[in-house]
Amino acid sequence: MIQNNRFSVLIVAFLFIIIAVQGAQLIEMKSGTETFVGKDSSLYQNYDHLYKNIFQTQSIVVMVEGNDVRNADLMGAVDRLEHQLAATDGVIETTSPASLIKTINYKMTGRYELPETNEEIEAIIDGNPDIFSQIIPDNTHMLISVVMAGSANDKTQQDILTATENAVPFAEFPPSYNIIVTGDPAFQISMNAEMNSSMGVLLGLSAIFMVIVLLLVFRHVRWCLLPLPVVLLGIVYTFGAMGYVGIPMSMVSMSAFPILIGVGIDYAIQFHNRLEEELQDKGNKTRAVIETVKHTGPAVLIALVMTALGFFSLFTSTVPMIQDFGKLLLIGIVMCYLSSIFVGVVTISLFDSYSDKNPLRKIANKIKPADSETKKKHEEDSGSDRLIGRILQKITDVTIKYDVIVLGIACLLCVSGIYLDQSVPIQTDVQKFVPQDMLSLVDLKHMGDIMGGSDELNLIIKVEDTASPEVLKWIDQFSEHEVATSSHIYSASSIVSLVKERNDGVIPDTSQEIEDIYSEIPDAQKDRYMYGKNMLLLNFNIGNAVSDIKVIGIKELTNIVKQDMQWMPGPPGVTATITGNSVVFIEVITALTSGRVAMTFLGLVLVLAGLYIVYRDWVKALVPIIPMVIVIGWSGGIMSYLNISYTPLTATLGALILGVGSEYAVLMMERYFEEKDKGQSPMEAIHMASSKIGSAIVASGATTVFGFMALLASPFPMIADFGKVTVIDVLLALLATFVVFPPLIIVLDTWRDKRKGIRTAENETEIIKQIKGAEI
After folding, report:
1. Which helix (H) or strand (E) holds 577?
2. Residue 324: exposed, middle, or buried by beta-carbon count in 10 A (0-12, 13-18, 19+)?
3. Which of 100, 284, 478, 698 lies 20 to 30 angstroms, CA to CA, from 602?
4. What are phi and psi for residue 93, nearest 5 degrees?
5. Where is the SSD domain (predicted)?
6. 520 lies in the same domain as 631
C-alpha cells in the first residue's frame, strides 16, 4: 500500500501538517498552581472555588523609588496614574498613598483632595503609621497596587499589565524617580513569554545537534540527514495533537520536544538504514519497501511499546504537569513512528531514483571517481564499525572474566545510590525554576527585599452569621495568639481589622452594630474578607516562607495552626479550612517524594509484563530490566553527588530511564539469542552480539544523547538540570548495556541451560527405568 500510493501518502501527510498547525494555535501557556495540583483534589477545590474565585485578589504593583517619596509633586503623579487605571476593564480598585492621603484629608478638612505642601503630606503620613507602613516602608520607596480578581484569566492580566505600563509615562512622574512595574502577575506573564521564546531555541539546538550526530554516525547511507526532517514532521504533528487534546505548555512539557527528537530520530534511522540495505541487496524498490515495513515495522513497534510502557507510569503522578508530560511523550513517539514508517519510507523510495543528483555526491564525484570513492568510504565506515565492535568485544571479555566483581560493584553502587537518593532535596519554589537574571524576577525580588515577603496562610471560615460578635471576637483572639506565639506569622488581616478601625479599636457587642459598620465599609475592601452571610477570610502573613522554611516548614506551620484551632475552638457552627498558594504546594512535595517512587515501580512492572507477554520467557523478561534498575540506583547517587534537586521534571527520571534505556538491552538480547539459535555457545553469541549490534546501539545512544544535550542550553535551571542528568543517565544506560548486561545474561542463561540439562538427564533416567520395568 505504501509503495503503490507514495504520492497519496505525501499528500495526506501535507494535509495533516495543515491540521496540526491549526491545532497548535490552541495550545495554552500555563505556569500556575493548576500545573502542580490536580483540579479534582479537595485541596484544589478549596483553593480554586472558595479562596481564588471568591476572596483572592492579585495586584500589578508600581514601585516608586527615589530620594524622598513624601512630596506633593510625586503624589500628584500617583493620583494621575490612579485616575487613568480606574477605568481599565478588570481593575477592581487601585490603592496608593495618594488615595489614602485624600481620604484622611477629607476626614480632617472635608476636602477630598491632596494637600498642596510637602509638610502637610508628611504630617498625614507620620500621623498614621499603621495605614502607610505597608505602602511606604521608608522615605525612599512607595507602592501603588492595581488590584484584579484572583480568577482573572491570562488575557485580562496581560491587558491590565499593558495598560499600567502605558499609563506610567502619561502620569508624568518627576524625572528623579525610578518607576518599576512588577508583581506576581507581571512575573507569570514574563515567565510564559520566556518559555515560549526558549522553546524555539531548544528545538533549533536539537536540530543542529542531530545534523552533527547524523553526519558522524550515519554517513554510510545516502541522504543521511533525511531522518531529521522526518522526525521534525512528527514533532509538528505532536504540536497539533497537543492543542486538540488540550495539553498546556508548561516548564515540564516544553522539555518533551528535545527528548522526542532524541528518541524519535532512532525510529527514522532504523527504517532508513533497513531500506537502504534492502535496496542494495534486492535492487527492486517495491520488494525493498515491503521487506523494510514487514521486518523493521514490528521490531521498532515493539521497542516503541516498551518505551511507552515506561512513560505510561508517569500517569500515576498526582502532579498535572507530569501527567501532561507523559501524554505528550506517548503522543510524540507514536507520531514520530507514523512519520517514519510512512513519510520516511516513501521519501527514500522516491529519492532512490534521484540519488545521483545529490549535490554533495556530485562534488565528491568531481574529486574522485564514484566507484573508487564509494569503495573507500565503505571501507572507512566498516573499519570504524569494526573498531567499535573490537573495543566492545574486549570490554565484554573483561566483564565476563570478572563477572562476580563487575556485578557486585554494580549492585553495590546501585544500593548506595538508592540510599543517597533519599537525601536529595526537593525544590518546589517556582522562582528557582526560571532564569535568575530574568528582569521580572529581579524586580519581584527587589520589591520583596524592600517590602518583605508576601506568602500567606489563608483560613476560610464558614459561619452561621458573619455579623456575630462571638465569631469576630474569636477571630480577633485567635489572630493575636498566632502572631504572638509563632515566629513565622508576622501579621493577620481580616474583616475584624476593618470593623475595629471604624469603632475605636473594639468589636461591637451586637450584630446590628456590626451590620451598621459593614454598610460603611466600601465593597472593594469588604469583599476581600467576607462573602455573603456565611463565609469569612483570615489571612496570616508568613513572609518569605517558601524560600526561608521551605515547603516542609510550611507543612509544619500549617499543622501547628490546625492544632491551635483545636485548642482554641471557634463558637458553635464555625469551621475553618486552611488553603492558599503555600498550602497547595504541600501537595506537590508529597507527590514528588512518594509519587516518583510509585512511578518508577509501576514502570518496572509494566515493562517487565510487556517483555514477558512478548517473549513468554522469564529470563528474557528480566535480563533487560535488571540493568535499568541498576542505572536508576546510579542516577540517584549522581544527583546526590552533583547536588541536583528533585523537581517536577527530574522526578520523571526513573520512567524515562526505563522507557529509553530498556531498548538497548532488548536489542542486545535479541541478537544474543539469534546467534545462540544458530548453534553458537553463550560466549560466542555474546561476542557476536557485542561486535555486530554494539556499534548500532552506540550510534542510537549518541543520537539520543545529542537530543537531550539541547536541554543543557535552556535558560530555565530546572530544564538545564534535567538535561544534565538525562544525558548522564543515557550514558549510564549504555555503560550498563555493555558492562552489566553481558555477564548478567551469561550467568542467567548458563544457569537456565544447566537446569534444563539436569531436568533432561532426570527425565532420561526415569524413561530408562520405566522401560526396564516394562521389560521385567
Report:
1. strand 575-579
2. buried
3. 698
4. -165, 165
5. 233-350, 587-747
6. no
Any idea what the CATH number is for the domain that residue 151 is in?
3.30.70
pLDDT tens per residue, range 252-280: 777 788 778 777 887 888 788 778 777 77
Written as one letter, the residue type at 46 is: N
- Name every residue whose Cβ is closer than 8 Å to that of residue 51 and which is 6 or more positions away in sequence: 150, 458, 460, 537, 579, 580
Which of 504, 474, 534 has the alpha carbon at shortest distance from 513?
Answer: 504
Burial 353-388, CB ≥16 within 10 A → b, else e: eeeeeeeeeeeeeeeeeeeeeeeeeeeebeeebeeb
Which residue, of 579, 602, 621, is where some domain finishes? 579
Cell 497548535 locates to 24
Q: Put residue 550 in one of left, alpha, beta given phi > 0 → left and psi -120 to 50 → alpha.
A: left
The H-assigned helical ranges of 568-652 are 581-615, 618-622, 625-642
Of 563, 60, 584, nearest to 319 by C-alpha is 584
The rounded distance, in Å, linking the Cα atoms of 359 and 462 is 76
* Res 232 pLDDT > 80: yes
Are 158 and 227 within one domain? no
Q: Are residues 563 and 658 located together in one domain of the fold?
A: no
SS in 3 state form for 72-130? HHHHHHHHHHHHHHHCCCCEEEEECHHHHHHHHHHHHHCCCCCCCCHHHHHHHHHHCHH
Q: Which residue has the higher pLDDT, 614 or 285?
A: 614
The model's pTM is 0.71
Count Cα neighbours of 298 within 13 Å in the Cβ-side half-sphere: 5
The answer to whether the beta carbons of residues 702 and 216 sit under 8 Å apart is: yes
The string of DSSP letters for 314-337 reads GGG-S-HHHHHHHHHHHHHHHHHH
Q: How many CB atoms lie within 10 A of CB 678?
A: 10
- Ranges of beta strands (E only) in 645-700 are none
Going by C-alpha positions, the residue among 19, 134, 43 that lies closest to residue 580 is 43
Set of cell numbers at residue 632: 536508576
Residue 763 located in a structural domain:
no
Measured in Å, how far apart are the chain's first and last C-alpha atoms?
67
Q: Are residues 551 and 628 in the same domain?
A: no
User: What's the confidence (pLDDT) of residue 237?
Assistant: 93
CA atoms within 13 A on the CB side of 413: 19
Total structural domains within the chain: 3
Distance between CA atoms of 95 and 103, rounded to whole angstroms? Answer: 11
Any residues with CB less than 8 A from the CB of 472 and at least 6 apart, and which? Answer: 495, 496, 499, 507, 514
- How far is 661 from 666, CA to CA, in rounded Å? 9
Residue matched to cell numbers 452569621: 465
Are residue 125 and residue 203 in the same domain, yes or no? no
* Residue 336 in domain: yes
Euclidean distance between CA atoms 561 and 265, whole angstroms: 54
Q: Which three cell numbers stand for residue 598?
A: 510509585
Contacts of 640 (CB under 8 A, 6+ apart): 417, 420, 421, 423, 424
State the residue range of the domain holding 486. 443-579
pLDDT higher than 60, residue 77? yes
- Does 41 map to a domain? no
Q: Is 650 among the domain residues?
A: yes
pLDDT tens-digit series, residues 131-183: 787 788 888 888 988 888 767 777 888 899 999 999 999 888 988 899 999 88
Round to whole Å and give the CA distance between 390 and 377: 20
